Amino acid sequence: PYIPVLAQHFEVYAIDLRGHGQSLPLTSDFSIKKAAEDIAALLDILKLEQVSAIGLSYGGLILLELTHAHPKKLAS
Q1: SS3 75
Q2: Is 2 helix (H, G, I), strand (E, B) or coil?
Q3: Which DSSP string corresponds to 7-73?
Q4: Which residue in 16, 37, 58, 64 could disulfide with 21, CB within 3.0 to 4.6 Å?
Q5: What CA–CA distance (Å, rounded) separates 58 from 71?
Q6: Computed over its alpha carbons, how large is the radius of gyration of the chain?
Q7: Nearest Cα to 59, choosing from 11, 17, 13?
């Protein structure tokens, strides 16, 4: 419900993480680190150098890992 409000001020990407939504089921080698690398790769593909991000629950843990591995990719 908050996406339309944010979209009035930001370009919003709602990411379907591994094992969630319509993504493929999780594999045995899944980790928070791999999910963070997925997001880093997506940012590279979209040519987004630095973004502000919101992660709810598990998504927050993934963003913490992304910040640790790629500190310049997240502005907030």
Answers
A1: coil
A2: coil
A3: HTTS-------TTSTTSPPPPTT--HHHHHHHHHHHHHHTT-SSB-----THHHHHHHHHHHH-TTT
A4: 16
A5: 19
A6: 13
A7: 17
Q: Pull the structure tokens for residue 43.
A: 């940012």
Retrieve residue 73's tokens: 């990719």
Over 90: is that where the pLDDT of 45 sits? yes
Q: What is the spatial distance between Cα 52 and Cα 54, in angstroms, rounded to a whole number?
A: 7
Torsion of CA 21, 10, 63, 45, to 10 degrees: 80
Q: Is the pLDDT of residue 11 over 90?
A: yes
* Alpha carbon distance 42, 4 (integer Å): 22
